[in-house]
Structure formats: structure tokens, C-alpha cells
Amino acid sequence: MTPHSLAFYIDVIASGTVLGAKPTDSPDQVTAILGSDFAENSPGGLSMWRDYGMVEFFWTRESRDHPWEGHHFTLQVHRLSWSGSMVNEVIRARYGRFDRHLDFDKLERLAARRGVRMEAVPDANAPAFTLHWQPVSHVSAKVCRSAEKRGRRRGGARRGDVYALSSSTSPEQVAWYRTRYGGQGM
Length: 186
Known about the structure:
8-stranded antiparallel beta sheet, single chain, alpha+beta
């Protein structure tokens, strides 16, 4: 894994942003940062997400007369195992090449060296996945704990790979997970 791509993931976990794009930013603000190369989905007109390859931003609104309000973003890291070209060009220009897999233990260790610590959180998807949370930035990491079935196809998450990074996982959500799922996934 290149040190540059690791720096990108650590920057996202530490800042709670993607190159400065916050989960609460408007679609225009995110496009100003990540560019206009995206696929847009808006089923029903009250929710929308833009797919920038590995990165997706999500918005909601009360009615078609109301402006979009930023809800969250997700880095679909698992997509890289199928195609390394899933990284947005703006991100690639800044951070360079990205490997097809992101080892959580290595990411967590390097983030801790920068003073960015992740907490284990119980999760409904245990034991196949574990959930880890950064309490300052509210970014969570979903980690694959059992290898995906690959069959004859290339790609798929391996045991220990980060499946996705997401924001904003609130302290209230984490408290609910802890109450609901108890010791699972820890």
C-alpha cells in the first residue's frame, strides 16, 4: 500500500471530510471540491446521492421546494478490490496510486501514531464485520472479518480489509449500538 493512499484514509478519519468536503456540504460545494465527474441518483426527489467512484455523498430534503441538506458520505473502499480505477481523479492527483485492499490493522496503527484513535463498537453484522469509530470526527470503519466468496471472479474483500469508511456516526448512534448489540463485534 502506498503511503499516499494511507495518508488519504487517515486524513478522512482525522478530519471527518474528503479533501475538506464535509458531510453537511451542499451538492454544489462537494462538486466544487471533487469535480463534476459523478453519477447522480435521486429516487423520489427527496433523497440524492452522488457517486464519485469510491466516494459517495448523500443528501435529503423535506420537499422538492427545499434545498438539499448534506447527510453523510461513504468511502466504498471494497470497490477498489474490483477496480483500482474507482478513485476520483481529484483524489488520485493529490494522493497518487491506491492499492486494491486496505488493511485495517495497519490503518489503525498508523492513525494512532498521529493521535487518531478508533474505538471498537458492537455491530449487527458481527462476526462477519466489525465496526470501529473515531469519536472526534465521527467517522466509522466497517471491517471485513471473513473473506468474501470470490468464486471465479477477481476481487472481493479479504479478512481484515476495510470494507467502507462512513461519516457521520454520531455518539447517540454508537450508544444505541452498544445498548442494542452489547458485546457483539468487540
